[in-house]
Design goal:
The chain is α/β, with parallel strands linked by helices. The protein contains 7 helices and 11 strands. The longest helix is centred in the middle third of the chain and has 20 residues.
């Protein structure tokens, strides 16, 4: 099988390693089957798409919809590199799965409205699949409703006409969508289990997602959820595109 490529941008080593381990675990991948590039650390090297089975973009501290003057030089570089890569991925309908930051990157690239209207605090959310979602191979075997972990400042307010809405929720209308046949983005985190969310709450307690003093309470609330279904998306992505 050709390896998958994980494009990460978490500057904190603990968060970056935890994320990578989660994609390995729930994708059923060995380290040799998932190459990781940390975009925040260095420019994206030249990529030959035929070397990979698919591309995954993990979560990020970057907020795509922030005004340009508020973005760091690193964020501007990463956004430019991802936009250029998406030009190629979309043109080729190349397998792509963007988790959380994928909505901001793929959505922006495709003309979606991305803003802060439907941001969600860290925690568990009930996701509901659309009819298109129930029929999509990446969501095969999943129930119409399931719990997933979210936590994001921005979200998709409206999709372009050519996008297919796959999942929604009461507080955030676009939780998952597809472009063409093989490019996907989720607003929720398919790689996050309870302990993974607890780890991120601890790491990001001073990142502005929530009041720092509420971290312990958020960790306790996270442990009260049962989140088992979203990781099937990773398993299905690897099964469908691994070659």
């Amino acid at each position: 099988m050709k390896p998958f490529l994980l494009l990460a941008s978490r500057a904190e080593d603990t968060a970056a390693e935890d994320e990578y381990a989660a994609y390995l675990r729930y994708g059923g991948l060995a380290p040799a089957q998932l190459r990781r590039i940390r975009l925040e650390a260095a420019p994206l090297p030249e990529l030959k798409l035929s070397d990979y089975s698919g591309v995954i973009v993990g979560g990020s501290p970057f907020t795509s919809s922030d005004p340009d003057e508020q973005k760091s030089a690193v964020q501007h570089r990463v956004e430019g590199e991802l936009s250029g890569l998406l030009d190629r991925l979309v043109a080729a309908d190349f397998p792509f799965l963007g988790a959380c930051y994928g909505v901001g990157t793929l959505g922006t690239h495709q003309g979606a409205v991305i803003d802060r209207t439907f941001g969600e605090p860290l925690g568990g959310v009930e996701i509901e699949l659309t009819e298109a979602g129930l029929a999509d191979p990446l969501l095969r075997g999943m129930p119409r409703r399931f719990t997933a972990f979210t936590g994001h400042k921005e979200a998709c307010t409206s999709l372009p006409a050519h996008a297919v809405l796959l999942a929604t929720s009461k507080a955030c209308p676009v939780q998952m969508f597809r472009i063409k046949e093989n490019l996907y983005a989720t607003q929720f985190h398919p790689e996050l289990d309870v302990e993974g969310l607890v780890t991120r709450i601890d790491i990001y307690r001073h990142a502005g997602y929530f009041p720092p003093e509420s971290a312990e309470e958020l960790m306790e609330k996270a442990r009260q959820f049962t989140v088992t279904e979203p990781t099937n998306i990773l398993k299905n992505f690897v099964a469908k595109y691994g070659s």
